[in-house]
Amino acid sequence: MEEGQVRNAFIQALRGTAAPLIAEIKPFSPEYGDLLRGRFPVEIARHYVAQGAACLSVTTGRWHQGSLALLQQIAEAVPAPILRKDFITRTVQLRESREAGAEAVLLSAQLLRRQDILRLAEQALNQGLTPFIEASEVTQLDGLHLPGGSVLAVCNRDIRQQEKDNGTVDHSLALYSLARGCGAELLVSASAMRDPHDAVRALSAGYDAVLIGSALLMAQSGVEQTTASFIQALTMR
Length: 237
Ligand SMILES: O=P(O)(O)OC[C@@H](O)[C@@H](O)c1c[nH]c2ccccc12
Prior knowledge:
Number of domains: 1
CATH class: Alpha Beta
Structural class: alpha/beta
Bound molecules: indole-3-glycerol phosphate
Number of strands: 10
CATH architecture: Alpha-Beta Barrel
Oligomer: single chain
Strand content: 15-25%
Distance between the termini: 35 Å
CATH superfamily: Aldolase class I
Largest sheet: 8 strands, parallel, barrel
C-alpha cells in the first residue's frame, strides 16, 4: 500500500463505525495490578476485534508491562489499526512504532512541552502515522492548535498520579468545548470509563470516540461479553 493510502487508517476506522471504540490491551495497571490474569494478549485483541472494536491501543511501556514486541505480535494477528500507548519523546521512536505495525502514536501533554508535541506530531504525519495527543488539563489545551490529521484525547485521569486518582468521564464533559477548538480531526475521551453508560455520555456530549482499557479487562463476565455490551450501548445510543 502507498504511504498516502495508509495514512489516517486509524481515524477512518473510527469514523466509519456506529460504535467508535478504541479497546486497550494493558497487561498491568498501577491501580488494579495484573490485568491479564493468565490470558494471552493476542487472544484478547482477537476478541476485541471480533466484538467490533474499530481500533486497538497497546501499551508498550515497562510501567504497564507492555513491549513493542507485544504490539508487533498483535498487529500481525488482527487487522484493526493500533495506537502505540507509551511515553514517546524522541523522533526515533516514531519509526520504530511504524515498523512494529502501529498506525498511531501517543504524544502526551503530561510529559512533552507544547513545541515538542507539535514537532513530533508533524514528524509522525510525515511518516504516515496518526499523532494521538493526550491532554488532561485546561492549560494543556488552551491555545493549542493541532495539525490536520491529528487526534486529540482528553484523559480523564491524571497520569502523573500513576492512574490512582479518581478520574471520571465528567472531566471530558467539562473540557469538551475547549478540546473541540484545538483543530484535531477526531476527539476522544480516554480513561476511567467504568461502564457503557460512561462511554455513551462521552459520545452524547460530542466526543467522536472513546478509549477504554481497565473496564474491559477487569470485568468478571470476560472480555468478549463486556466488549459486546459496550459496542451494543454505543450502537444503540
Ligand atoms: O484503563 P483505563 O482507565 O480505561 O485507561 C486507558 C488508558 O487511557 C490509559 O491506560 C493511559 C492513559 N494515558 C496513558 C499513557 C501511557 C500508557 C497508558 C495510558
